Amino acid sequence: MPIRAYIYLVITTLLWGGNTIAGKLALGHVSPMALSFGRWAVATLVIASISVPQIRKDWDLLKANWKLLIFYGAVGYAAFNGFLYTALKYTSAVNGAIEQGAIPVLIFVINFLLFRIPVSAIQILGFVISFAGAAVTASHGNLQTLLTLTLNYGDLLMLCAGIAYAVYTISLRWKPAVHWKSLMAVPALAAALTSLPLLWWEAGEGQMILPDARGWMIILYCGFFPSLISQILYIKGVEGIGANRAGLFINLVPVFGTLLSITLLGETLEYFHILALALVLGGIAIAEWGKPREPLKANA
Questions:
Q1: Which candidate, 248, 257, 237, places its Cα nearest to that of 289?
Q2: Which spans are transmembrane here (predicted)?
Q3: What is the predicted pLDDT for the residue at 292?
């Protein structure tokens, strides 16, 4: 049983949940695109400071795969965050949380259409239960809230964000056999560079807020933990159990975000928080139990 991959993915989603809290704390202290660029600039500086010798060793493979590595940074990192941050200006946090829960479905669908990777009926059941947990979290235990949701321009952007991260996740099957330091260095730089047009757009709209002291602390946190450590662990998790199964763990993000809000922001623990966590974890467990029995090299 790939316990190490599970641990990697749980830590990943915990850090991504922390990113949600950082986003809340950033309001009025640093604007979204300034935060997005800053986090990837910090991640690039950190990884570059420790990876130059390793990059030299992997240089031939990096040169041979530079387009793929830039794609990882531009699509999986910069585009996803750009779409996400912009979408939340137009749509509700409930919509955003629910629509992020669609990422595992997109991974399933794209994997099947492109590679005919099968999904068992039990895995589908596990996904539905896990998604229900994310919905319980987003609706604060009142599922009737979901019936009143309306779709707008922000929801289209959220769909684009989900597609971007699903495509990134699936494309990890082609990642070159290089050290993790090298694997993070080029995409992090690509993410920082491709965030610049978004930063320029934000400045042109007169909405850019340069970071103050708290803003810089948030940038440093996001640059080191959600941007760097979590991405390394996510890659390891996908490598260990495949894109379909790893994608289900994304439903833990709103749950961890809520639990961290209780711990760090003093919000109240409600019954639905515990129910949501049980549903998400139970759904993941069911999907793992119901995975196809034959080894699938294409999904490894």
A1: 248
A2: 7-27, 33-52, 64-85, 97-115, 122-141, 153-171, 183-201, 213-234, 246-265, 271-290
A3: 63
